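We treat protein structure as text, and this decision shapes the records that our systems exchange. The tokens are whole numbers drawn from a learned vocabulary of local backbone shapes. Below, we set out a record of this kind in full and without editing:
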Amino acid sequence: MPTPIPQEETIGQSSMSSSNRFWHFMAIHGVPFGLLLAGAAFLYLGIMLVQDANKAQNWPTIEGTIVSSSISTVKQTKGRKKTFHYPKVIYEFVRDGETLQQDRLSMSDMGYSKMQDAKAILADYPKGSKHPVYVDPNNPSVTILRPGEDSIANFALWFGVGFVVVALFAWWGLPKVANKVRFYTS
């Protein structure tokens, strides 16, 4: 007498517990949707920061003089130990008869993990050189030397794009993986 061939077990919605159905749904739809929302939030933040940085290109300018250029090095001691190098440029300008000093380079100054990147920024600002100082017309206490540049905006944009791409791949791939997972009732 021939031996019966075992039939591949199929899992239908009726054989899954409600808890398993919930996790199955979340695996297929919740994770990609969450990633998509995170990506959208980072993209929105990045776009807003880029727009602010670009608006600064139209701010009025005052001639400024570089007082000093240096690099500040900060060593992170908690978690992954890293070293960041921050270009520090102090510039001076006269506004309304008053001599003022500032040190803000761009809308969001970031540190660099490589010393040569920080040095490349400083190469543009040797002591004594003259540069236009961009003054925010809505808040004259905010001044920058590098309008249109925003490292954090670029980071947020690329981070957002990454999340969106991962979300799209997850929406495409997770249903295939989740449908192969067998949810047994207990």
Q: What stands out?
A: Residues 60-146 form one domain. The first strand starts at residue 61 and ends at 75. Residues 18-55 form the longest helix (38 residues). The CA atoms of residues 62 and 133 lie 5 Å apart.
